[in-house]
Amino acid sequence: MTPMPRRLVAALASSAAALTLAACGTTEVADPATGSGSDDGGAAAAISESCAADSTATSTDPVTLTDGVGRTVKLEKPARKVAVLEWQQTEDLLSLCVAPVAVADVEGFTTWDTAETLPEGTTDVGTRGEPNLDALAGADPDLIIVEVSSADDEVIAQLETLGVPVLATVGADAADPVGHMKELFTLIGDATGRSERADVVLGEFDEHVAAAKEEVASADLPTTDFVYFDGWVDGGTVSIRPFGKGALFSALGEELGLTAAWTGETDPQYGLGQTDIEGLTTVGEANLFYTGTDDPAGDYVAELEKNELYAKLPAVTENRAHAFPTGIWTFGGPRSAEQAIDAYVDAIAG
Fold first, then answer.
1. pLDDT beyond 80 at 284
2. What's the whole-model pTM score?
3. What single-letter DSSP state applies at residue 140?
4. Cα separation of 303 and 269, whole Å?
5. Can you state the percent helix, strand and coil of the chain, rounding each to 5?
6. Which H or E element spans position 223?
């Protein structure tokens, strides 16, 4: 199963009763301010080849930001030594060609988000839900980026005891998932003085979508309806998490001209539902896409394929059920979104 953003775990647990249907090549990272190699935080820096070729400017001007929950954050100069406590924001920082000095759950990020590569030796500050404050302080950041549910989230006050500016972000918005992804990326670009780079990356994303849309349009699909899902096995029972209209991966499919077909109830922030194998039969002729897994101890896909109901779904019998490669983070930034778009195209037009 794809692990959920830490705030989503509690949200889905509290809403489970209502839903009774319920992660490229690398090179030395450039220090954005100098263009030279950086070893902030003791990391042996390595990031994407895209950053090796990057020539965008880095601002040194003071920064005043309105963060994701409406707080004003003022920096005397753009942040250079950034600690990040959620994976999407970690990916975004790397896409901006800034190496973080500290990250929550390095192993998890490396496993589930392959869109960007963390510098080897990046300081690990514990879990996303409960970061180690001592380790955070030891990394000596000049900005901490955290994901929260509201402006009064207690984690903000806890982090502020370190005497470091805190940029509070919100992980998703089901009303406009792609727009929210872009806005969050832009916010982190502004905080680090990397706004020029942010514009380049978002421009590349838009070009990626446009090219992929043409490929999908030329494919001979019996239906444009689709459902993306992931799942897990618990006590021998397969649980399915369908991505509804407000989910990022559903929105990416719709950007390509597909039609999100899951109509069951979903949570209001991430657009995710909950069902079982029988619940999948409600999607009719829809194409199926799902998160691939390399976990032999919890291979929900293997269990699905043993099930007669699943085997009889039109998408399965007609070879229109496709696993995405492992390591595409379903709650990621522009680079993860590009990976997802490529996976859609490979499945549909490959």
1. yes
2. 0.88
3. -
4. 29
5. 35, 20, 45
6. none
